[in-house]
User: Fold these one by one.
Assistant:
Number 1:
Amino acid sequence: MNRLTIILRRAARYVGTPGVVGLALLVFCAAFYASALAPAEARSAQLREENQVLRTKLRRALARVEAPQQTPAEQLSAFFSRFPQSSSAPEWLGKIVEAARRESLSLDQGEYKPTRERTGDLTRYQIVLPVHGDYVRLRRFVADVLHEVPYAALDNVSFERQKVSDASIEAKIRLSLYLEQAQ
């Protein structure tokens, strides 16, 4: 017999059957806690945190829902009121010209034509810009215009190059600028 077996038998005689059963239960409980209860407690803590985050999101969403509801006509009016007045058209056109100047692009004679939209209180300025320059500068120009003039929409861009070896491109850029109709 090996030494461990001898020690266990002596201990069993010393504590008796109830002691051995108690010791076995103690070892079983420690193993059960380490394998089942500790991971469950960690998962429970994680779920409590997720619950708190979801409750916060729910409170925010309910606060938005509980705000006084507008009628569709009021919503439409609020939408159109976010556009700048058509009297500010020269300012917005100036930003377009400034974006071209920053990219060292030559803006030849541009055209713009205001038209009143059939629905809503908007005036649409249809802008056609013939532009000369290299492709990278043209792309940056269009991106700058759309970033700095949030009420502009890019309708069309067409590129033309006289020869394949030319670095310069002739482009025709069509934009629409939407502004609130003067009352």
Number 2:
Amino acid sequence: MRASDISASDFKGLAFIQRAIVYRGRQPTFQAICDHLGFKSRRSAALLIGRLVERGYLARLPNGGLRVVKGTAEDASTERTIEIPLVGSAPCGVPLLALENVEALIPVSQKIARPGGTYFLLRATGNSMNEAGISDGDLVIVRQQPVANTGDRVVALIDEEVTIKEFRHGNDVVALVPRSSDKHHKPIILNRDFMIQGIVIAAMPYPID
């Protein structure tokens, strides 16, 4: 159902901008917005963004980019949902849930993200887990927690970079194991003091076009 304070055209534009930010990691160009909505000038696209910012659906970032503040109804069903921050691919050296990482707040069913937990979304990169149901470009829903069981797909911070791997532990060490068709990916061996960032509870591809 469309929000009552914006027009049908603005809502369509918001949905298009949101999909680009969420699934491509960047906002669409003015020309792309014009092509999608049938605008004749880029000024119309700029005015659309201005209206969406003014009404609180988008926010401007210090670097000139955009962040989705209020998602469209196309991302939620009639069931109960919870808004989860999408933190992109998480820049190196910055905490995952730092404000500067948050690209959008995405409604997710409470049947998936159950109340009582803290969740975030990441955009997967690479093919190191393509045989475990996580492909390049997928969005993964992560439950934030510092421990895992053998076989869990975990999000870890290694050398200030985020990685998704299968968790395994032994008597003295833990291993982060790739599950990939590309045999160049190798396990990462760590000591038992290692702390994970969260567990992947779902992964989903989403074609934007």
Number 3:
Amino acid sequence: MTRSVADAAVVLGVIAGHDPADSTSWRLPVPDYTAELRGGLRGVRIGVDAAGCTDMVHPETTAAVLAAVDRLRELGASISQVQLPPLDDALAAWWTITLAEMVVAHAAHFPARAAEYGVAARGLLEEGARTSGVDYARAHATRLALCGHMQALFVDIDLLACPSWQAPAPPLALIPADQPLARDLALPSVRLTAPYDLTGQPTISVPCGFSSEGLPLGVQLVGRPFEEGLLCRAAYAYEQASDWHYRHPAL
């Protein structure tokens, strides 16, 4: 087996499962993810939302992702068009929930040691501390509605394919560490990944090309909760049929 997805499957097998120190972790048996890698894609149903691959997505990213979808079809998967629900409200809910829960996670040190935080992290925590109970409840209701939409969507598909990010990898200077991270800047950058934080669905991103400037592009696969084995199997099948994971940008 080659690196990347196979290695990820090994690590997943180690970290998955019930944690006695975490009462919220699930008490489910952990599959042998590496044993599932070679199952192939015959009969696997993959959905693609055309708008999700094109709207606000860089043309080179769109082309690379759709080419990856075609390769998945050649490998035996059946491809169908699906329609994701509108995600603007879900992204706003993700922002509210994430920042509020960030405050809880840092309660031992913030705000008592706020001066020791960087500008970006401190700004997020300060905004999260202003979240009201009504704001959080409203965001949670949006989260539950999105979970219902996705559950219905995955009745007819096994996986969803979409871009990992809407554009080639950005330069580091795009999000300077010494400035507050504004919501208007942050939300567009997570619009293709944050919804699955809300629904608790597993995702995997694999390389699918490079931009004209030599920047990496990725295709994201999304699965049902607790079906990481299928997710790894599909990603592994695509990886074995390409060589993108062996290539590196010129440095």
